[in-house]
From TrEMBL:
Region (Domain IV, binds dsDNA): 316-438
Gene Ontology CC: one annotated term: cytoplasm
UniProt xrefs under InterPro entries: AAA+_ATPase, Chromosome_initiator_DnaA, Chromosome_initiator_DnaA-like, Chromosome_initiator_DnaA_CS, DnaA_C, DnaA_dom, DnaA_N_dom, DnaA_N_sf
Subunit structure: Oligomerizes as a right-handed, spiral filament on DNA at oriC.
Biological function: Plays an essential role in the initiation and regulation of chromosomal replication. ATP-DnaA binds to the origin of replication (oriC) to initiate formation of the DNA replication initiation complex once per cell cycle. Binds the DnaA box (a 9 base pair repeat at the origin) and separates the double-stranded (ds)DNA. Forms a right-handed helical filament on oriC DNA; dsDNA binds to the exterior of the filament while single-stranded (ss)DNA is stabiized in the filament's interior.
GO molecular function: ATP binding; DNA replication origin binding; lipid binding
Protein name: Chromosomal replication initiator protein DnaA
UniProt KW Cytoplasm keyword: yes
Organism: Brotocaccenecus cirricatena
Gene for this chain: dnaA
Binding residues annotated for ATP, in chain numbering: 143, 145-147
UniProtKB keywords: ATP-binding, Cytoplasm, DNA replication, DNA-binding, Lipid-binding, Nucleotide-binding
CDD domains: AAA, Bac_DnaA_C
Residue intervals of the Chromosomal replication initiator DnaA C-terminal domain: 344-413
């Protein structure tokens, strides 16, 4: 193999031995290989539905194929358009494809009692940036439309001000870009990208809490933009006062402007969302089927979108009619996915390693450094709490430790959570983020 393109071709050839040609053509036709470095194989897919499907259904196949080729485990990352721009160090003077898409505008946002205030505030900000609510802080559980409002703001500002420099970033990606800029000596470029923006949109800002250097950098970025009369819009899964690891000076700044929450939609709003999303997907749903979905999927908008995408897949891939049986099957699958989600031990350990910035081999090994010990004990605690594994089985995940060692770790975590509120909040945050991966 002479190039990474050859590697990807080889991976696809191996997948063909396990998957049908139709499956390969349907889900991988828009996937491109980007690079392979630092034990990571990086791909790009601009289609968000295909990207999420590959991550959910085919990631293990890709990793297994790469292991066959290289005889070692490689991490696999799939980047969307925004992440690809960030990877190449391109400042998004123009928003990514989703921000420009007509699918995510104020016109396609379904308004109900639970999100009316957030919608009105977002519109006001888009019409007159930095004149009224700066920053605008939107909070609520995952999948309730916060990101849609960010896209809608960007879309309207772009329509009114084509020259505007709009920057959209997720909280954890802000940290990753900062680390990369320091490593590559590009601090000046990093700061110019954010501090010269006309409109800064930060999704999931809660991810910067507890990261000292990231908070320091964002503090100065916030001040520069605010004092220059530039609009800042932030979203989070909780209000600033509930982020116990967020610095006080950032908490007060986040509360300077307007804070609005979004709650799960009621039945009427869910029904309107279903009809709206179905129309965008080109699916005609009878009233009884729409009502059935609205009655059974109540958690968030993302659940509803998932069910409709599943129906679309039934229709396009299998030639099935969108009838009561298909809807019942799609809803049942979504309910199982959201209500019976049990993360694997490897998923928990993988996330813990990223959170604490430690190697998986170290977490599973015998190292005694303080941060490493905390990461290992936290991983054991979460595996015990979130899975059905016995103490002995958990021990096997960490170098064949016996059940008494695991039990001691669980006790240590519980004691620390009672005595250290910041650590308790950290465990809560990690648990929430793992659950959001379902």
């Amino acid at each position: 193999m002479n190039s990474i393109a050859d590697v990807w071709k080889n991976v696809l050839d191996r997948l063909r031995s396990q998957l049908s040609e139709t499956t390969i053509n349907t889900w991988f036709d828009e996937v491109e290989v980007v690079t392979m470095e630092d034990s990571a194989f990086v791909l790009h897919c601009s289609n968000s539905f295909k990207k999420s499907t590959i991550e959910a259904r085919f990631m293990s196949h890709i990793k297994a194929a790469l292991k066959d080729i290289f005889s070692s485990d490689l991490e696999v990352k799939i980047l969307d358009d925004q992440q690809l721009s960030a990877y190449h160090g391109v400042a998004p003077d123009r928003p990514g494809s989703l921000l420009e898409s007509d699918a995510f505008t104020f016109g396609t946002y379904v308004v109900g009692p639970q999100n009316k205030m957030a919608y009105a505030a977002a519109r006001a900000v888009a019409e007159k940036p930095a004149e009224h609510y700066n920053p605008l802080f939107i909070y609520g559980d995952s999948g309730l439309g916060k990101t849609h409002l960010l896209y809608a703001i960007a879309h309207q500002v772009r329509q009114r001000q084509p020259e505007a420099r709009i920057v959209y970033i997720k909280g954890d990606d802000f940290t990753n870009e900062l680390i990369a800029s320091i490593r590559e000596g590009k601090n000046a470029e990093f700061r110019e990208k954010y501090r010269q923006s006309t409109l800064l949109l930060v999704d999931d800002i809660q991810f910067i809490a507890g990261k000292k250097q990231t908070q320091e950098e964002f503090f100065h970025t916030f001040n520069t933009l605010y004092e220059s009369g530039r609009q800042i819009v932030l979203t989070s899964d909780r209000p600033p006062r509930e982020m116990t690891q967020l610095e006080d000076r950032l908490q007060t700044r986040f509360e300077w402007g307007l804070m609005v929450d979004v709650a799960p939609p009621d039945f009427e709003t869910r029904l309107a969302i279903i009809k709206n999303k179905a129309a965008l997907l080109g699916v005609q749903l009878p009233d009884d089927i729409s009502s059935f979905i609205a009655e059974n999927l109540t958690a968030n908008v993302r659940q509803i979108e998932g069910a409709l995408n599943k129906l679309l897949a039934y229709r396009d891939l299998l030639g099935n009619q969108v009838d009561g049986e298909a809807v019942s099957r799609a809803v049942k699958d979504m309910l199982k996915k959201y209500n019976e989600f049990v993360p694997s031990p490897s998923l928990i350990i993988e996330y813990i390693c990223r959170y604490y910035d430690v190697d998986e081999e170290q977490v599973r090994g015998q190292g005694r450094k303080r941060d490493l010990m905390e990461a290992r004990q936290t991983a054991m605690y979460l595996i015990r709490r979130m899975t059905n594994l016995s103490l002995n089985d958990i021990g096997k995940e960490f170098g064949d430790r016996d059940h008494t060692t695991v039990l001691h770790s669980l006790d240590q975590v519980e004691k620390k959570m009672r005595s250290d509120p910041a650590y308790a909040e950290k465990v809560k945050e990690i648990t929430t983020n793992i659950n959001n991966k379902k």
